[in-house]
Amino acid sequence: MQPAVNIAVRAARRAGEIIVRSINRLDSIEVTAKGRNDFATEVDRAAEQEIIGILSKAYPQHAFLAEESGRTGDSETVWIIDPLDGTTNYLHGFPTYAVSIACQHRGRLEHAVIYDPMRQELFTASRGDGARLENRRLRVSNRPGLEGALIATGFPFRAHADYVDAYLAQLKGVMQATAGVRRPGAAALDLAYVAAGRVDGFWEFGLNPWDTAAGALLIQEAGGRIGTLTGEPYRLSPHIVAGTPRVYEALLELIAPHVPQALRNT
Ligand code: IPD
Ligand code: CA
Ligand code: CA
């Protein structure tokens, strides 16, 4: 494992400890509503501080783009951090959430760590060096198309709730063509599961760089594809489709015709 990944893994595990430590006192966790159905808790903030503390001690010159504290520092190397992806699940005691950390250098994703503290599963990737679950090398599934495929998704909410009709048209097509659709509630884990072959594809709109950066590298290193809803290359894009190469193509065919005008070219 490369040194930067080692340090990010240490940071992700420490954040995981903070997250797990509070699951028996969910009722007393301090919650702030950042917007409608958009929550941050003291746990999100404490986990993020821990991660940034560990990374900035090792790399004082690097910059950070983190969900709760925003952009800090100025460097060609940026750590992109979601300290707790799946906060709504977490607050409900629904045990599907993760820590997501990616490292980008000169605009290119170099390293990725996604850690699920409930299952204690650690997903890692470095560019050109493959993706792993613990020590096991990951490959996307060998599903040749949508027939029999299991697809993960995220429902549009917050500002994107207005596009629900377009989304439902996409969902209808995908439901009719596949074995099933799941909405687990943590985009970083959804993407890690594409890399691990546990689902064959994924799509969602309205995501942030910290939701997708680590998962995108995992998928690419596991032989999968990720791009925008209209098939453009992924560049920390908010509206994304991912999957095995053939599932990616097939999903795009169903989804692209129903992309709202306002979301095209983004
Ligand atoms: C959310 C989760 C969810 C996705 C949302 C994200 P958060 O992240 O990834 O699955 O549907 O769009 O914002 O807010 O829990 O870190
Ligand atoms: Ca998130
Ligand atoms: Ca989060």
Task: Describe this protein with a few key phrases.
single chain; 266 residues; alpha+beta; Fructose-1,6-Bisphosphatase, Chain A, domain 1; D-Maltodextrin-Binding Protein, domain 2; 2 domains; 8-stranded mixed sheet; 5-stranded mixed sheet; 15 strands; binds D-MYO-inositol-1-phosphate; binds calcium ion
Report strand %.
Answer: 25-35%
Major β-sheet, in short?
8 strands, mixed
Can you tell me the CATH class of the largest domain?
A: Alpha Beta
Gap between N and C termini:
34 Å
String of helices and strands: HEEHEEEHEEEEEEHEHEHEEH
Query: What ligands are attached or bound here?
Result: D-MYO-inositol-1-phosphate, calcium ion
How helix-rich are the residues, as a percent range?
Answer: 25-40%
Low-confidence stretches: none
Number of strands: 15
Q: Helix segment count?
A: 7
Taking Cα atoms only, what radius of gyration do you get, to the nearest Å? Answer: 17 Å
Notes on the protein architecture:
With 266 residues, the chain is of the alpha+beta class. It folds into two domains: 3-137, Fructose-1,6-Bisphosphatase, Chain A, domain 1 (2-Layer Sandwich); 150-263, D-Maltodextrin-Binding Protein, domain 2 (3-Layer(aba) Sandwich). The chain is built from seven helices and 15 strands. An eight-stranded mixed β-sheet has the order 4-3-5-6-7-8-9-10, sandwiched between helices. A five-stranded mixed β-sheet has the order 12-11-13-15-14, with helices on both faces. Strands 1-2 form a two-stranded antiparallel ribbon. The relative contact order is 0.13. The protein binds D-MYO-inositol-1-phosphate and calcium ion (2 copies). One calcium ion binds at residues 44, 67, 82, 84-85, 87.
